[in-house]
Amino acid sequence: MKINKYIYWVLSIFLLTLYSCSTDTDGSAKLLKKVVETSAQGTVGTTLFTYNGTEIVSIEGAQKRTDFTYTDGLITKSVTLNKTNQLIETIEYSYLEGKLVEAESLGNYRINYIHNTDNTVSYQKFTIGSGNQETKEFHGTLYFENENLIKEERIFDNTASGVLSKYSVSFDYDSKHNPLYNILGYKKLLEYNEGISSNNSLISTVITSVSKDNQITSSANFYKSSFKYDLDNYPTEQVSENAIATNGNVGYLKSEYFY
Description:
16 strands, disordered N terminus, 16-stranded antiparallel barrel, globular, YD repeat-containing protein, signal, mainly beta
């Protein structure tokens, strides 16, 4: 009987250790602290992430800084300043039962969201002009699968009479950890595109089309990225041949991630 108890005790310790090691290797929650971007011309830009626990406090780059405000674990405001502390944009977020229903850039635009029962989100964007007059700019649908934004479809409402303009972007993902996903409340900010997904986008496909007088003009662009990962399956490096950098430049970009 004592031998059986000893074997049970040893086996329990072994299984606990094995589970602990497995969790550390593939399930440890990391927070992104720094991103270093290098362009084809050798220009280097650094972005720093500051936290209070798992709440994001600020994201600071070379040209601007964005500060975040939380209410009950949800991001309710972001304020973006340039390096001379001049206000660029303030966005306020409203929720219903923990789901984002409105994002308003004060004096600029407003986006309304409706969460559907089929795991899609419908939205409408209105621009805000003088006298707070609103003009519907476009409407569309967000499609989700396995905690990833897999597609966005958009129809523009501010086109000329008889013109139908459409835009869509779809994303293909790896099975690794998105370094932004562990930020509390970040995945609820629906305008952040693939940045709110649980995995990392390998290929994004952008299709635009314009229809007028029964004639359709369309184009398709593909944006590909390759990644290197650490032992916890978080990306340490991303290389894109035609990415859009934080400074607005388009082309080759290498991004290094630090936690």
